[in-house]
Write a structure and sequence with these properties.
By secondary structure, the chain is an alpha/beta fold. It folds into two domains: 194 residues, Alpha-Beta Complex (2-enoyl-CoA Hydratase, Chain A, domain 1), CATH 3.90.226.10; 47 residues. The protein has eleven helices and ten strands. The strands form two sheets. A six-stranded mixed sheet has the order 1-2-3-5-7-10, with helices on both faces. Helix 1 runs parallel beside helix 3, helix 3 runs parallel beside helix 4 and helix 4 packs parallel to helix 5. The protein is globular.
């Protein structure tokens, strides 16, 4: 049984952490597969959006498989940490929209996967947190993402106390975008994914990459850069189709050109 599942359906690539008996703890093999599947999803013109979730209905991802990882030699552990860091960067900079469907508790390294995605939808009974400090570790790589989503003192409180947070609290802190009743999660997730898949893939790609480029730039330079990027989007066939469809009062048919 593979540690990670990959399926394409209705222009959506589903990546599922498939280790339910291990609380969907991430393994080195899963990380490697994840990187491979992201390469495939980016290269596949049929894929418009990527959804990350976990098997079952209790845990999205409980972080690294510590039982296995800590028994490995130091060079193997270092390799796993490096590849996990590479994966977080890859998800964060992925050119197509990404959505994390949080179908259960999301802890430790799972927090990194979640925060690296563009949109995060969670069921209301899910718990969140960074409990690494409780076992003598520290949430290093995911800290870079935490501080890009959460106010510093709120982030430090979560990291240093290692306590679990409710979905509502995670929403208030800016870690997730929506909280839904468990029975509504699948339906609403599919609705949002279908909406994303219907948008212009070219426009979203240019837009996402543009926002990444201007992060940290002075305001004036950022606005000037984005003005140039808007010109790139406006010159696409999708933009012409979108405006024409709007004037003709019909749904646009985007091709990614």
């Amino acid at each position: 049984m593979t540690d990670l599942l990959y399926e394409i359906k209705d222009r959506i690539a589903w990546v599922t952490i498939n280790r339910e008996k291990q609380r969907n703890a991430i393994s080195y093999d899963a990380i490697q597969l994840f990187l491979t599947y992201l390469d495939q999803a980016e290269a596949d013109p049929q894929v418009r959006v990527v959804c990350l979730t976990g098997a079952g209905d209790k845990v999205f991802c409980s972080g690294a498989d510590l039982g296995s990882a800590m028994q490995e030699a130091s060079d193997i552990k270092e390799m796993m940490f490096t590849q996990y860091a590479r994966l977080l960067t890859r998800i964060s900079q992925f050119p197509k929209p990404t959505l994390a469907k949080i179908n259960g508790h999301c802890l430790a390294g799972g927090t990194g996967f979640m925060l690296a995605c563009d949109i995060v939808i969670a069921q209301e009974d899910a718990l969140f947190g960074t409990p690494e400090v409780n076992v003598g570790l520290f949430p290093m790589m995911i800290g870079a993402l935490i501080f890009r989503n959460v106010l510093r003192k709120k982030a430090m409180e979560m990291i240093l106390l290692g306590e679990k947070l409710t979905a509502v609290k995670a929403l208030e802190m800016g870690m997730i975008t929506r909280v839904l009743p468990k029975e509504d999660l699948n339906r609403e997730t599919k609705k949002i994914l279908s909406s994303l898949a219907a948008k212009s893939p070219g426009g979203m790609k240019i837009g996402k990459q543009a926002f990444q480029e201007v992060e940290g730039l002075p305001l004036g330079q950022a606005i000037e850069t984005l003005a140039v990027k808007l010109g790139e989007v406006a010159a696409t066939k999708d933009a012409a189709e979108g405006i024409t469809a709007f004037l003709e009062k019909r749904a646009p048919k985007f091709t990614g050109e």
